[in-house]
Specification:
It is a single chain. This protein has about 450 residues and is of the alpha+beta class. Helix content is about 30%, strand content about 15%. The chain is built from 13 helices and 17 strands. It is globular and about 75 Å long. It comes from Pseudooceanicola pacificus. Its main location: cytoplasm.
């Protein structure tokens, strides 16, 4: 008899984790609080209920990072992808699904598996023993949230995203932008050039404010608002408080000299800060926003140096419980202070259905392997799954950590390929070819006996 794996949460991540562990020969109990305890977003008690979009985004495994993640999960026998494929709807190059039949089918598959059972009721404390995966997602219950805070420290568990847009480094015009920290702060050259600066003259600033104020915004859902926002306001709210507010806040031009035009003082400056250890991604500092995605792209491309920017992630503010994973989790998704507990899904700081399910797949395999006496290493960082887990458990800066979708900016660079927009097609194909070979190798070495 092997030890039973307990999983808290029956969303995308929890369902996938249970399936993977059970397929490897481990008995699993899923603890799901719904329908006994509801949330403001869920409508049913089904497992893997889709509460937002019905899209798993691009299914292109050669030119898109999320499509590559689809491919990796299919190769690993993922329940979420198998079910999505059976219930897909026409959506061009995307994978969209018929949401209710999809969640009903996941629920039925879990119920039919001889090694999985589902128990109702809320888990509101961290277990002291056993093998556990917490996959409670962005709507973690209040009781469990308090228990996680007590264990990790209140500053290491967030209840809202305040997401600034992230730009691919190779899409920034460095003939306009220059590298400099405000007042040249820092003891090393790297610290003194830690920020990229986009200068605006007065006319550009006024046009930017006009566009910001006129842009379409999303509204908060019931249950999403909180006093949190007083400390981290959307940029459009700051602009509404006065046209000069941003110029005296995140866009202040002080302590900076334009390396391209040192004799011209910028009227305002937008700063970008490196967002990952590889230096392939930069976030726009202080630019959390509730603008709709299309409006964000139009408005942010008005920033000098970002006219041709490609975005790895757009901004947002919404309800989302997540850990400061770089400071709390090891590369096996274990809580460092309680290694018998793993975390999976959106609560780890990944964004999106597919990314959440992928972390469930990984946590389920790792937990099952531990129960079976096998030390399963994380997948290579050159794979989509490996790039994600590397990012959330160490590749991202813990001080500025925010949830992230999978994207090629998280992958280690390729040698001998052309950078920039013109080389993108060959570069992306190189990423996916490399990832597929390494993922297959990892799967072969990661298969535990049933």
């Amino acid at each position: 008899m092997t030890e039973t794996l307990h999983i808290v949460g029956g969303g995308m991540a929890g369902s996938e984790a249970a399936w993977q562990a059970a397929q490897l020969g481990v008995d699993v109990v899923i603890h799901e609080m719904r329908p006994q305890v509801g949330t403001f977003a869920h409508r049913t008690g089904n497992l893997a209920e889709m509460v937002c979009s019905n899209s798993f985004r691009s299914d292109d495994s050669e030119q898109n990072a999320v499509g590559l993640l689809h491919w990796e999960m299919r190769q690993a026998g993922g329940l979420i992808m198998q079910t999505a494929d059976r219930h897909r709807l026409p959506a061009g190059g995307a994978l969209a699904v018929d949401r209710d039949p999809f969640s009903e089918a996941v629920t039925a598959a879990i119920a039919a598996h001889p090694r999985i059972r589902v128990e109702g009721g809320e888990i509101d404390a961290l277990p002291d023993s056993g093998q556990w995966i917490i996959a409670t997602g962005p709507l973690t219950s209040e009781g469990l949230g308090r228990a996680i805070q007590a264990e990790t420290g209140s500053e290491r568990l967030a209840f809202f995203d305040a997401i600034a847009p992230i730009v691919y480094a190779d899409s920034i015009d460095m003939d306009v932008v220059w590298a400099q920290s405000r007042y040249d702060k820092g003891e090393t050259e790297a610290e003194q050039k830690a920020y990229l600066n986009c200068p605006m003259d007065r006319a550009q600033y006024e046009a930017f404010i006009d566009a910001l104020l006129a842009a379409d915004k999303t509204e908060f859902h019931e249950g999403e608002t909180a006093g949190y926002f007083d400390g981290c306001l959307p940029i459009e709210v700051m602009a509404e408080r006065g046209r000069e507010t941003l110029r005296h806040g995140p866009m202040k031009p002080v302590g900076l000299t334009n390396a391209h035009r040192p004799d011209v003082k910028p009227y305002a400056v937008v700063q970008l800060r490196r967002d990952n250890a590889l230096g392939t991604l930069f976030n726009i500092v202080g630019f959390q926003t509730k603008m709709k995605y299309g409006a964000q792209t139009d408005v942010f491309k008005m920033i000098p140096g970002l006219e041709n920017a490609s975005f790895a992630r757009l901004g947002g503010i919404h309800r989302n419980t997540f850990l400061n994973s770089p400071s709390l989790l090891d590369d096996r998704l274990r809580l460092r202070s309680r290694p018998h507990i793993r975390f999976a899904g959106q609560v780890t700081g990944v964004e999106g259905y597919v990314e959440s399910a992928a972390m469930g797949l990984l946590a389920g395999r790792m937990a099952a392997s531990a129960i079976l006496g096998i030390d399963l290493p994380p997948p290579p960082p050159e794979t989509a799954t490996g790039a994600l887990v590397t990012h959330i458990t160490g590749g991202a800066d813990a001080k500025t950590f925010q949830p992230m979708n999978v994207n090629f900016g998280l992958f280690p660079p390729l040698d001998g390929v052309k950078g920039g927009r013109r080389g993108r097609k060959d570069r992306y194909k190189g990423y996916t070819d490399r990832a597929k070979a390494l993922w297959q190798d990892w799967l072969q070495g990661a298969t535990a006996p049933a």
